[in-house]
Every structure is written in C-alpha cells, then in structure tokens.
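Open question from group meeting: does this chain pack into something compact, or does most of it stay loose? Before anyone orders reagents, we agreed to write out a predicted structure and look at it together. Recording both the input and the output here so the notebook holds the full record.
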Amino acid sequence: MAKEPILEMQGIHKRFPGVVALKNVGIRLFPGEVHALMGQNGAGKSTLIKVLTGVETPDGGDIRLGGKKIQAGSVLEAQDLGISTVYQEVNLCPNLSVAENIFIGRFPMRGPVIDWAAMHERARVALKVLNITVDVTLPLSSYPVAIQQMVAIARALGNEGQVLILDEPTSSLDEDEVARLFDALRQLKAKGIAILFVTHFLDQTYAISDRITVLRNGELEGEYMAADLPRLQLINKMVGREIDESAYARQAGVAGSETSGQRAFLSAKGLGRAGAVRPMDLEMRSGKVLGLGGLLGSGRTETARMLFGIDPSDSGTLEIEGSQTRIGTPHKAMMSGLGFCPEDRKTEGIVADLSIRENIILALQAKRGIFRFLSKKRQSAIADEYIKQLGIKVSDAESPISQLSGGNQQKAMLARWIATEPKMLILDEPTRGIDVAAKLEIMDLVKEQCRKGLAILFISSEMPEVLRVSDTIAVLRDRQKIGEIPGDDADEQKVFRMIAGVES
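Structure tokens returned:
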C-alpha cells in the first residue's frame, strides 16, 4: 500500500450566503484504496466533491494531485487532470449504444469518419477491465441500472484517470448488482486506482472500504482505517452532537396514552419494493406512534412512499382494518384513510403560489372529487378552524403560503391532512429546517393527534425526536427492517447498537 496519497485536500473552506458549508476540511486518497466519505445530510460531502471536481471554487485551502497543486475550473478540467466522477443518477444517453456512451465526445476516427469497429473493440476491452461482457452495439437502455453504472465507470476510466469518485452509486441497485459493482471496484483497486466512495449504507461501507473519512456539520471529524473503526463508533461520530435533555427527553403520557391502541389499523407482511425496500413486516395501531429509526439511506423515506402508494410495493400483503388490499396510488391511500406529509416540504408539500387556505383544503378537495366542490366560504371555514386549532401564525388565510415561516408551513401541511379525517398519518421529517421551539410544537401536535386515535408513522433524522414521541421504534438498516424496540425501553445507544449489529 502506498505511503503517499495520490490526492490530498487540505484546509478546504467554502461559504455560501449565510452558510459555512466547509470549514478546514481535508481528505487523502491513496492508490489502490477505496475511501468511504461518510456523514449525515448537511455534513458537506456534496460540497467537498463539487470543490474537488471544479463545480465550486473553494474560498481557501489546497488540492494536490501527485504532489502538485491543482484547481479544476470545471468538471471537464477535472477529468483532464485524471479525476472522474460517476453520479447516483446515470448521466448517459440511453438511446445510444453502450460503445457510443463510453466514447461519446472522443470517438476513434478513421480519417473524417468514426471507426466503428475500433470503437466496439475498445469498448469491449474497457468493460472487460470491469469483468463485464455485454453486446456493446445495443442501446444502453437494453441493460439494467447496474450495467449502466458499469458503463459510466468505464467511460470515466477512459480518461485514464487516477482518481474515481462514486457518488451514491448503489442507491438504485439490488444486492446482486451491488456485488457485481464491488467486484469491479476490486479490479480497479488492483490496478492502483484511488476510489472515493460516497454512501450512506453501513454494510456496503465495511464490505468495500479500506479507509473512512467522516464529516459532520461541514467540518472534518476524522479519518480512520475501516478495520480499526467499529460500526457503533462510526455511527456515533456521524451523529455526535450536544443533546438538550430537557427539550428532548421522553415524557410521561406520550402518544397513545389515552387510547388502548389494541386495534391494528394497518398490517403489512413481507411488504417490499425491489431496489428500494426489502420485504418487511409492519403493524400500525390506532392511537399509537411507530417511529422509524435508522441512518440516512436506511430506507425510511422509501418505506413511507411505498405505504402511501407513491412507489407501490411489488411483494408481500397489506391489510387495512382487517381487509386485504393493495395501495397502488396516493389516491387509493387517501381513500383508505392515509395521509402523508413528505420529507421535502418545498417541492413535494406546499404549493408556493397558492394561498394558505388553498393549501390546507387541497387534499380534502382531491379526496371529495371534482363533482363535490367545496365552496370558498366552506374552504375558508375549514382553513380558519385548523389555523386556530394548530396555532398557525398567519395574518390572512388568503396570503401565499410561501410567506409563512418553515414551522408554520409544516403546521399547514399537517392541517391539510388532518382536514381529510385520516385514520393514519405518515410524517416524513416533519421538523426538518425549523427552529427548536417550532420542533417542539410540531411534536406536541403529533402526540395530540395520536391521543385522538390516529395511527402515526413518524420519521426523523433526529433520533431524540423519534424517541420522544414513539410507542415502538422499528429499526432500519440498509433498506431493511432489522428489529423493533419498545419506546419505553429505547434510548439512542440501544437504537444505534442495533443499527451497528452490536448485541445489547
């Protein structure tokens, strides 16, 4: 193993308006190693890659390749320097052949025309390096995502790069496809290529990585040899923070304390979706909160989207109130008594150009259908009722919802679904991007709805929030449910130990 890094970033600073994205961050990549870059959302991973590949210009720090100071001004310049990137979404042309995708922009020529025979042969050789044998003359769309990823890697390596960056390359792959990709990465390691592997999957991190760098809140937490860093320690380093025990402590009388919660509203057996969520069992009880515990990438959002029919399940069975059913669309979910507040409030939640009133009644009107239109007077009455009930701070319900604070927008999203009189609410990151006081208000509203008999699926990256409101915590890791912990018996360490596969 080389003693000197092929690439080194030192003291990298990057500031955006109002935000310090990177503060004195560094990373070292060694030839013949897979180096995992780990961290939660907002840790700075994407910004660091953008700085390295010339998408963003750093405000300070040095980048050295082979001991020489460099600064790429664009992705193209980075490629010319020998730094290639393969992104989560395959950025190729599905209508072109495999060979054309590998050599696009640099076709082998014979005089004024493309040398097709040479290109096809060179494409076969490029893929053989990755232990892949396919018909390179067929359209890229003929092959599964895993093969497309290999083609993207082959294209990246065609630039004779020394450094390969893989940004969440396995997010859309199943287990067999991941195994094939990792076989290819081992081939590349043997050739001395330095690989930067960005992922949220713990199992994959330890399956392929030699070295791990952890970022937290835009700062370097540390660099470690993978063999010397137990999983639990890695998790603690990723999520480490000062915890306000008084604000987040689990309180007596949490959700469901005023209901027996004996009736199962929803029961799932072996429910899953290929490439997104492995088959799992889930049970949602009326008047109870089921929290989903897991790190980013564990499958929490994918589970929520599957249950609400946005990305329907393709395996297992589902019962609602004792009757077997299938939720294939969000409309079917609504008619079955489900409501869903999505993770991305700005793009999937609020309709910024509509008023607060219109946003609140949106789901109710959709549930009623176009032939049972609510009058504006009735809409206003409903909106005013929930504005008062949820304490939404607003001067006029006819104002655009975009004028509200993040916390009040989130309350309006809750109002939208409560207005449909659901029997189950799915809340995906309901407190993201809002201040501490608003977070506590939202969580209190969650508990209040639960006391009224709603079954609630609660998802949050903030483990203390999950612990505070949940009657039971279903723990996820790498897109599968690995166990459950009763809320009264749960704490952060127990959840993280389960995620890490450490016996209690």
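Observations to bring back to the group:
The first strand starts at residue 7 and ends at 16.
Confidence is low (pLDDT under 50) at residues 241-248, 251-261.
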